[in-house]
Design brief:
Layout (H helix, E strand, L loop, with lengths): L1 H17 L2 H16 L5 E9 L2 E8 L5 E9 L11 E7 L5 E6 L5 E11 L4 E3 L3 E5 L3
Antiparallel strand pairs: 1-2, 2-5, 3-4, 3-6, 6-7, 6-8
Length: 137
């Protein structure tokens, strides 16, 4: 009987620890992390299949000092610092809040895209990465 009494408090302690403030803190940190991805000049970045290619669509928060954008893609692991990012196009800043670039020269597989904002003073800002899967034809 004493053994069963020892098991119950341990089970209660385990259940109560799952709903502790530590779990709530972890959830809050996740939200903060996703908000940090939105900082900078980019409001969003989306990619999708369109016809036989892809469409890269992005928006900016403020585009006053941005002179243009470079669109890059890779078929490799995007977080690897040695991945080969190739420039697939450039888009001049026309003062709009959203921009689109079509990439028609794609191969089957998972393609990762990012956009580089180029400022008038020569500095740059890089967007988050967006991926699209192109099935084999």
């Amino acid at each position: 009987m004493k053994t069963s009494l020892l098991v119950i408090p341990v089970a209660i302690a385990l259940v109560s620890s799952l709903s502790s403030p530590i779990a709530e803190t972890s959830a809050k940190q996740t939200v903060i992390h996703s908000i940090k991805k939105q900082e900078g000049p980019f409001a969003f970045l989306r990619t999708h299949r369109q016809g036989k290619g892809t469409a890269v669509v992005w928006g900016v928060n403020a585009s006053d000092a941005i002179v243009g954008f470079g669109i890059q893609r890779t078929y490799e692991e995007p977080t690897d610092p040695y991945s080969n990012w190739e420039e697939v196009g450039t888009v001049p800043n026309n003062g709009a809040r959203s921009f689109t670039h079509r990439d028609l020269q794609v191969f089957p597989g998972i393609i990762h895209y990012r956009v580089i904002a180029i400022y008038a003073d020569g500095t740059t800002a890089t967007s988050a990465i967006s991926s699209v899967r192109i099935p084999s034809r």
